[in-house]
Design a protein that fits this description.
By secondary structure, this protein is an alpha/beta fold. It has 7 helices and 7 strands, in the order αβαβααβαβββαβα. The chain has a 7-stranded parallel sheet with strand order 3-2-1-6-4-7-5, with helices on both faces. About 35% of the residues are buried.
Length: about 180
C-alpha cells in the first residue's frame, strides 16, 4: 500500500468548490473564542462541502492569521457571514426554513446517533462558546438539541472535535 501524494488527491479548486452542490448544512458559531477552533471548523466545512459558516458575536472573522493557520485556505472556499449575535443568525435561518439544532447538553436533547434528518433537509447547527456553550436564548430559539454521546469522565469535547463529529454524521445521513 502506497500513501498518495497531494497531486494525486484530485482536490477541487476554490472555483470548483464554489460551483459544487453543497451539503445543506450551515454552521453557526456562537461566541467561539479560539481562532484555532474557528479555522478548524472552516477546514471541516470545506471537507464536507458545507453551505456556509456563520460567525456570531465575539467569534473571530477572516482574514486573520490565527484562523488561517488551521483553516489552510478554507476561508477562501467556504462562504461565511458575521452576525452581531447568534440569535440574529438563528432568526434569519428560521425565516429561510432551516431546521435549527443546538449542539449542547440539555433537557430533551436527542443523542446524535438517534437524530434522523430528512434527506436533503436544510439544517443549521449551532456550536457554542468553549466555556459557556450555546447561549440559553439561542437554545430556546432552536427547533431541537443534539447531544454527542460521551461515556468517559469528562462532560465536553473541544468545539472543533464536536464539529467534526456532528458534521460527518449529518453529511452521511443527508446524502441518503
Amino acid at each position: 500500500m502506497r500513501k498518495l501524494e497531494n497531486a494525486e488527491l484530485d482536490r477541487k479548486s476554490v472555483e470548483e468548490f464554489r460551483e459544487s452542490e453543497k451539503t445543506p448544512i450551515i454552521i453557526v458559531l456562537d461566541n467561539v473564542r479560539s481562532l484555532h477552533n474557528v479555522g478548524s471548523v472552516f477546514r471541516t466545512a470545506d471537507a464536507f462541502l458545507v453551505e456556509a459558516v456563520y460567525l456570531c458575536g465575539i467569534t473571530g472573522c477572516p482574514p486573520n492569521k490565527e484562523i488561517q493557520k488551521t483553516a489552510l485556505g478554507a476561508t477562501e472556499s467556504v462562504s461565511w457571514k458575521h452576525y452581531p449575535s447568534a440569535l440574529d443568525a438563528v432568526m434569519e435561518l428560521k425565516a429561510a426554513n432551516y431546521r435549527l439544532v443546538a449542539i449542547e447538553q440539555a433537557e430533551h436533547s436527542v443523542l446524535l446517533d438517534e437524530f434522523v434528518p430528512k434527506t436533503k433537509e436544510k439544517i443549521a447547527i449551532v456550536f457554542g462558546n468553549e466555556v459557556k456553550g450555546v447561549e440559553q436564548a439561542v437554545v430556546s430559539a432552536c427547533d431541537g438539541v443534539i447531544e454527542i454521546p460521551q461515556l468517559g469522565t469528562k462532560h465536553s469535547l473541544n468545539i472543533s472535535v464536536s464539529a467534526g463529529i456532528v458534521i460527518w454524521d449529518l453529511f452521511c445521513k443527508l446524502k441518503g
